[in-house]
Amino acid sequence: MAEVGQRARIAARALARAETDAKNRALSVIAEAIEAAVPQLKTENARDLEAGRARGLEPAMLDRLELTDVRIASMAEGLRQIVGLADPVGAIEDLKYLPSGIQVGRMRVPLGVIGIIYESRPNVTVDAAALCLKSGNASILRGGSEALHSNQAIAVCIRTGLAAAGLPEDAVQVVETADRAAVGELLRMKDSVDVIVPRGGKSLIERVSRESLIPVIKHLDGVCHVYVDDSAETEMTLTVAVNAKTQRYGTCNTMETLLVCASRAADILPPLAARYAEVGVRLKGCARTREVLPRIEPASEADWHTEYLAPVLSIRVVDGLDEAIDHINTYGSHHTDSILTQDYARARRFLREVDSSSVMVNASTRLADGFEYGLGAEIGISTDKLHARGPVGLEGLTSQKYIVLGDGQVRR
Amino acid sequence: MAEVGQRARIAARALARAETDAKNRALSVIAEAIEAAVPQLKTENARDLEAGRARGLEPAMLDRLELTDVRIASMAEGLRQIVGLADPVGAIEDLKYLPSGIQVGRMRVPLGVIGIIYESRPNVTVDAAALCLKSGNASILRGGSEALHSNQAIAVCIRTGLAAAGLPEDAVQVVETADRAAVGELLRMKDSVDVIVPRGGKSLIERVSRESLIPVIKHLDGVCHVYVDDSAETEMTLTVAVNAKTQRYGTCNTMETLLVCASRAADILPPLAARYAEVGVRLKGCARTREVLPRIEPASEADWHTEYLAPVLSIRVVDGLDEAIDHINTYGSHHTDSILTQDYARARRFLREVDSSSVMVNASTRLADGFEYGLGAEIGISTDKLHARGPVGLEGLTSQKYIVLGDGQVRR
């Protein structure tokens, strides 16, 4: 692994200088190579699936592992979308004259070497490689051992693209070992890796956060809230609250707790409960919620902390905005939280005071997403505060250096 | 220490919401309190100085420790400058409509709790507290044990200012123990501290980087270069090269290695060596340098890595731009590097390809500084790439969250 790191560091220098055209050419050729390699990709993937079944992998994991025609086509499509995104590298911001006569600005530069640690989905290999490449970073990709053959087949396509564009082969390295210790080693390679991005379940992300000596861009939990304010519009509330919970259950930006202002509990909760009942969402509530919806289960203290990732929703009636903000900042995971209101001052306070990576007014938490935010693509969502917060796109994989233009200025 | 962290976390929430007026009032009252407390500050400082002399502290350390009338006045002046800076918190950038009809932008928010670990200078207590306060962050200040009484006297003034502005007393906590273990404990308080800023000598910064489980904003070395290109103007070269080395010797942005294009060695090095000789700078050179300046010492491989912080300069003759960039990216510390040139294309390449926190054309490396860059004040200079790079001012002590404004939009 140490050698992998050194090779990545060398490749990163060349990649930082690479022109946009070369990076786009590599991405386009990778897309073509993937489309031309459908039979090989499926053959190698079948080996992984067979081994997975033999090892007794869960059906959900086998599903994530499988490369279908549609999924392969969508990998190629994803690459072409990244070709279409603006290259962030070299962009100069805020270049201005200062009293001494120098011009000072900031130029966007790649981070250097990015380590991606992920689980069964082979499409992450292509997505992550493409985002790192476009943002001028070398990448070291360490996928799950259960996807080893699929990932190696994808790696062949990636190498074809890099070679066609004259970019160093080591710009993207797909780690070829199933040895679990390789992850631990990668997490300690401070000198050759600049940032680690884990993608996968909570236990993976926890392990990476705990062991890494390298900064990690991550989010652990998505305990997201919608707060129905006193002044919320009824129809909008029903639409948004249903969408935020039910549009998809397993995603990090799905609502897990609904907070309702006491003045609206009686008129909002019964019709909302009826809509949830239609789609089979199980409700749990605080004592005040159960005064209005007596048949639902009681919510425990643990429920307020829980990311169900399932058709389950906890509901709490609060006195008003202060209690709602306090609940969110205390029990939430600083991911995405939304207020439904027509009150200007309360919207303004919610935006300022809720300490989450995305804070919304009158919108579904499910909109917290790189595509919806216009970033084009995302490598993940960060609930950390340092460096990147919220959906992380190409810009989140870059840094800025100062540039100074003078004509002989010195320090007095 | 755990309690200190919990109190800081609670204070941070109040501070994040604090209005600019309240923060400015606190800073102004701290300045007044410091001016009114000159006798007490000097009495307490005298206790530290006496104890320091008894412990045999070096004269340089005793000098840094001393609070003179001028230094106390400049602490108050520094506070008033920070009052005058724009409040970064709450500023919204890039708010724009997206196809779904939502508006998405980013709002600047405090990082939360900042731990500052520093050595003998008591003025850091005021500077760091003020920058953290203005940027809406709670701070935990852990100064050197040799400055304990001075720092506690300053802490009294800080508490006066916080109280006058109705801000929580725990917004700034000056750790009251001389116990060295307190630093280790602070560095492990992941849940209550968001970022650590070490200020002091290299051994302190190395220790903090090694032990911290919390992200650190730091720079270790300042091995800065000036490259004299084939097309550099002679008079400008002499002026800038002398300023970059001699304007101050002990600072991180002082030039430590001069690179000279082979075509200019014969005409530039003799007059430059004469100027350095006038002010007593000792020169060391590579073999090609010593063909022109035969009397100077040879430079060893180790010299190219060395931050002298003294009137010593290493000089290397290179074939041209490629070799210069390669030398800087290999031996430099990614701090500040400058090219002297009149060639447009080479200036452009140098700006793009040198991987340092500040990259300059025709300017002295000594200009790499928060005040010179218009940041108003700096808490330090970062040579890291994640989060903040280069001089770190108020903005570097903040993060950005996404804000979304809608009128009922949902995910399709």
From TrEMBL, chains A, B:
Keyword terms: Amino-acid biosynthesis, Cytoplasm, NADP, Oxidoreductase, Proline biosynthesis
Q: Principal place where this protein is found?
A: cytoplasm
What reaction does this enzyme carry out catalytically?
L-glutamate 5-semialdehyde + phosphate + NADP(+) = L-glutamyl 5-phosphate + NADPH + H(+)
- The secretion signal range is none
Instruction: Give the enzyme's EC designation.
Output: 1.2.1.41
Q: In which pathway does it act?
A: Amino-acid biosynthesis; L-proline biosynthesis; L-glutamate 5-semialdehyde from L-glutamate: step 2/2
GO biological process annotations for this chain's record? L-proline biosynthetic process
Q: Which enzyme class? A: oxidoreductase
Q: Which GO terms describe its cellular component?
A: cytoplasm
One Pfam family it belongs to: Aldedh
Task: Fetch the InterPro entries from UniProt.
Answer: Ald_DH/histidinol_DH (IPR016161), Ald_DH_C (IPR016163), Ald_DH_N (IPR016162), Aldehyde_DH_dom (IPR015590), G-glutamylP_reductase_CS (IPR020593), Glu-5-SA_DH (IPR012134), GPR_dom (IPR000965)
Drop me one GO molecular function for this one: NADP binding
Cross-referenced CDD domains: ALDH_F18-19_ProA-GPR
Its annotated compartments are: Cytoplasm
NADP as a keyword of this entry, yes or no, is: yes
Q: Which residues form the Aldehyde dehydrogenase domain?
A: 69-280, 304-367
**Family classification:** Belongs to the gamma-glutamyl phosphate reductase family.
Report the function annotation for this chain: Catalyzes the NADPH-dependent reduction of L-glutamate 5-phosphate into L-glutamate 5-semialdehyde and phosphate. The product spontaneously undergoes cyclization to form 1-pyrroline-5-carboxylate.
Provide the protein name.
Gamma-glutamyl phosphate reductase
Species: Acidihalobacter aeolianus
Q: Which gene encodes it?
A: proA
